[in-house]
Amino acid sequence: MDPEIGSRIRELCDQNTLTRRRAVASLRQSGSTARHAVPALIDAMRDEDEVVRIGAAVALVSIDAGVAQIALPRLLEGSASRDVSLRTAARAALKRLRR
């Protein structure tokens, strides 16, 4: 596994919310190279922070659309978020799933 991906996976469990948010964003940008992060991202979809939960779901879609079906409930949650950027990201991920 790429050491960078391993670091991001560990950061998903960090106490600091901003660290977890950055980890999710980084894994999303890594795309399919972050396959090892799938189990940790599934766990992160239960995070106390909405941005982390929805970000993890969006990251799953970026990594593997097949696995991402588990993210569907969180993406639907995100598509109704009051946070515009979160809502936009969730809706874009939902569109990718429908292709």
Topology:
Elements: H1 3-11, H2 17-30, H3 38-44, H4 50-63, H5 72-79, H6 84-98
Report on this structure.
The chain is mainly alpha-helical and 99 residues long. Helices cover 68% and strands 0% of the residues. The chain has one domain (3-98): Leucine-rich Repeat Variant. It has six helices and no strands.
Question: On the 0-100 scale, what is the average pLDDT?
Answer: 90
| Class from helix and strand fractions | mainly alpha
SSE order:
HHHHHH
CATH architecture type: Alpha Horseshoe
Number of strands: 0
How many DSSP H or I helices? 6
Q: Identify the overall geometry.
A: globular
Instruction: Report the major sheet.
Output: none
Query: Which oligomeric form is depicted?
Result: single chain
Note the beta-strand portion.
Answer: under 5%
CATH class, named Mainly Alpha
Superfamily (CATH H level) name = Leucine-rich Repeat Variant
- For the termini, the CA-CA separation is 29 Å
CATH overall fold name: Leucine-rich Repeat Variant
The total tally of domains equals 1
Q: In percent, how helical is the residue content?
A: 55-70%
Question: What radius of gyration results from the CA coordinates?
Answer: 12 Å
Low-confidence stretches: none
